[in-house]
Write a structure and sequence with these properties.
Belongs to the globin family. By secondary structure, this protein is an all-alpha fold. It is built from 7 helices and 2 strands. The protein has a two-stranded antiparallel sheet.
């Protein structure tokens, strides 16, 4: 077991420009209208492609069938929570302190209470970008995807910062 080293992460998340914030807020408006369905699609793809991530969820950790997962109230509830957290970030992009505090809470809860490996945040953000660009191709152009990738990098930076703060011991990422 090794400690997460601060040197592994940049000193700060790359800030978004005003134009980039506007792009994120515009595209998110279309996504958030269908937030539960999109969230469920994202989580199902995440759990199908990375089944080791299911270990943190008692209700569906043994489910293999995506349709069965889709009916899980625990999965639907978590999908809403994920989408609402991203919504809070998007709505507060003008307020870096608020974004930082929201993501610190998410990171600390996942580190201390749920003991979730931090790498799953990076994997989940990649899955989310995939689903968004497939489900909303008219809005998620190459330029928009680049801006969202930048946002997801910032989200990951904040969340892993919270892990470091609580003294998280990283287990090797070979678990995936």
């Amino acid at each position: 077991m090794e400690r997460v080293q601060c040197e592994d992460r940049p000193e700060r998340a790359e800030p978004l420009s005003d134009a980039e914030r506007e792009i994120i807020q515009d595209t998110w408006g279309h996504v958030y209208k269908n937030c539960e369905d999109v969230g469920v699609s994202v989580l199902i793809r995440f759990f199908v492609n990375f089944p080791s991530a299911k270990q943190y969820f008692s209700q569906f950790q043994d489910m293999e069938d995506p349709e069965e997962m889709e009916r899980s109230s625990q999965l639907r509830h978590h999908a809403r929570r994920v989408m609402n957290a991203i919504n809070t970030v998007v709505e507060n992009l003008h307020d870096p302190e608020k974004v930082s505090s929201v993501l610190a809470l998410v990171g600390k809860a996942h580190a201390i209470k749920h003991k979730v490996e931090p790498m799953y945040f990076k994997i989940l953000s990649g899955v989310m970008l995939e689903v968004l660009s497939e489900d909303f191709p008219e809005f998620f152009t190459a330029e928009v995807q680049m801006v969202w990738t930048k946002l997801m990098g910032a989200v990951y930076w904040h969340v892993t910062g919270a892990y470091t703060e609580v003294g998280w011991l990283q287990v090797s990422s070979s678990a995936v």
